[in-house]
Amino acid sequence: MSDKLILGADSSTSATKVIAFNDRGIPVAIGTNGYPLYTDKPGWCEQDAEDWWQAFCRGSQEVAATPGIDTAKMTGIGLTHQRFTFVPVDSDIRPLRRAILWNDIRCSKEAQYATQTLGKDEIFQKTGYPPGQWTLYKALWLKNHEPEIYEKTYKLVLVQDYLIYKLTGNLITLSGAATMTGALDIENPQQWHDQVIEALGVRRDLFIDPILPGGTVAGHVTKEAAAVTGLPEGLPVVTGAGDQPCGTLGAGVLQPGEIGINGGTSCTNELVASGVPQRNDVDYFIELMPSGKYVVENYIPSGGSALMNWYKNNFGAYEEAAAKKQGINVYELLYNQAGESPVGNRGMMVVPYFQGANGPYWDLDARGIITGLHTEFGRPHLVRGLMEGLAYESRREAELMEKGTATKVREIKMYGGSAKNDYWNQIFSDVFNKPLHVPETAETTSLGAAIAAAVGCGMYSDYKKAVDTMINIKKSYTPVQANADIYQRFYSDVYLTLYDCLQNAMGDIARINDDIDSATA
Predict the structure, then answer these.
(1) What is the reported pLDDT for 364?
(2) How many angstroms separate the most distant Cα atoms in the chain?
(3) d(CA 326, CA 347)
(4) Backbone angles phi, psi at 267, to 5 degrees
């Protein structure tokens, strides 16, 4: 099997990346191509769907043209994508307007309408998602604000759906992508929840059938697609899941009790559940791995990369100058400053709600809090405070997920940009008081899609064999008990109640700012 290649493609918010892996999960060829975002109005974020396809074609061509790559050895390709981004298309699968992205927030009134009409708790029970910025509510926005487009729409097509259609000619969707539309029957993930869709007045026929599970061959590369992608005609195209579940799988998370933490722009936490998660409290949302296992997810919108960028861009002149003088990466120097402050940061704490709070608060008015400041504190304390705050908040989210799944976290798989740093990883291991492992490859999202393809194409008989073979652990961290004891006190005695003390003040700040903005408009 050693000469076989399996491809994974990730069509993300900023670029599409196509990677060829060997059967041991090692990247051997990569093609990456970006595309623009359009933000014509506040809260809007759009893309041209054709840009996804053109970027995919260029990336595939680059992989196929890589010296030493034999396309005849390609066994299959798996796809992952930016989840609930969608484009309305006509009956010829031609886009009727730009795609509306996942992070577009134009549908707040539609989400409020759903809450008033059906109720947040009932919708969460049925779909695994409370009303929000999901595809279903943007479909209702189209009906309310662009009725001509809405009436002409044949289907609402997700990114992965669009690429699969362009590659194979088959229009299908998949359960691991349909979850985040907010319209899937979460207990029966190969069918839509017709009652919720119809109760909101959205056309049921807009949603694609069939819904395939992950790791399923959706079709094969057509002669026409082969000509523009460089991929071999007849190559199996395999369903994966959304980017975070695929990234979690690509980090080696497979069994109940394993939690994947993405130390990227958002600090995303996904815990594998042993069955259908409880939906008594709206503390998380529910996703599906390519393997079909349920994962519960929550995330901190302002994660490690985001907050370190914020620090660097506003306060990092010293670090940038020092890094240039030493000839090292500025982020290496920045993160390593955490070592100049002791465990627990002498009580200086950060609540990382710089872009609002998710569960348990779901509070868009939330803002970051820095407390415990003293004149003797400086740059290292702020850096360590950011890292510890993200670890505290990740633990808080994880404990809510443990409760809802009746599954205890046993170990952490850390991936994303921040996972390159020892201080970051040790802090998370100590705060959770759990072992932590970092995978060898940084390309976990594409690797997760490739693993789904490897199973779907029969390279491996099951996901465990694929993960055991294709994922290698680069480094492991063991919690230091003395550190864990310090963090436990700060976490339980201070952190868990800190935002509760200030939540009303945050609402007042938002209200006053709204009044000021209205007065000066």
Answers:
(1) 79
(2) 69
(3) 31
(4) -95, 95
Taking only the tens place, the pLDDT of each residue in 429-446 is 999 999 999 999 989 999
Q: What is the tens place of the pLDDT at every residue in 121-130?
A: 999 999 999 9
Domain 252-439+480-521 has CATH 3.40.50.150: no
Tokens of 42: 């506040």
Q: SS3 for 462?
A: coil
Residue position matching structure tokens 């633990």: 395
Cα separation, 293 vs 393, whole angstroms: 25
Q: What whole-number distance in Å separates Cα of residue 220 and Cα of residue 227?
A: 14
Where does 295-421 have alpha helices with state H? Answer: 304-315, 317-326, 330-336, 379-405
User: Residue 181: how many CA atoms within 13 Å on its side-chain side?
Assistant: 34
| Cα–Cα distance for residue pair 125/186, rounded to 1 Å | 8
3-class secondary structure, 382:
helix
Rounded CA separation 80/247 (Å):
9
Looking at the DSSP bridge assignments, the partners of residue 294 are 288
Res 510: pLDDT = 87
Q: How far apart are CA 17 and CA 506, in angstroms?
A: 40
pLDDT of residue 183: 98
User: Looking at residue 495, what DSSP letter applies?
Assistant: I
pLDDT at residue 2 in the model: 65
Give me the residue label for tokens 């799944």. Answer: 405
The alpha-helical segments, DSSP class H, found in 216-329 are 223-229, 243-250, 304-315, 317-326
Average pLDDT, the chain: 95
For residues 18 and 444, what is the distance between their CA atoms, to the nearest angstrom? 12
Q: Which helix (H) or strand (E) holds 240?
A: strand 236-242
User: Poorest-confidence range of 171-175, 357-361, 367-371, 472-476?
Assistant: 357-361
- List CB contacts of 281: < 8 A, sequence separation 6 or more: 360, 400, 403, 404
The mean pLDDT of 74-94, rounded to a whole number, is 97
Q: Which amino acid is at 233?
A: E
Start-end of H helices in 153-193: 159-168, 175-178
In this prediction the pTM is 0.93
User: Using CB atoms within 10 A of its CB, is residue 482 exposed (0-12), middle (13-18) or buried (19+)?
Assistant: exposed
Looking at domain 5-243, what is its CATH homologous superfamily?
ATPase, nucleotide binding domain (3.30.420.40)
Domain with CATH 3.30.420.40 in the chain: 5-243, 252-439+480-521
Task: Tell me the per-residue pLDDT of 231-285, one tens digit each, with 9 for 90 and over.
Answer: 999 999 999 999 999 999 999 999 999 999 999 888 999 999 989 999 999 999 9
Q: Are strands 74-81 and 236-242 parallel, antiparallel or unpaired?
A: parallel
Contacts of 458 (CB under 8 A, 6+ apart): none
By C-alpha distance, which of 145, 133, 131, 104 is closest to 200?
A: 131
As a whole number of angstroms, the distance between CA 60 and CA 218 comes to 18
**Residue at 260: amino acid letter:** G
* Residues listed for the chain: 521
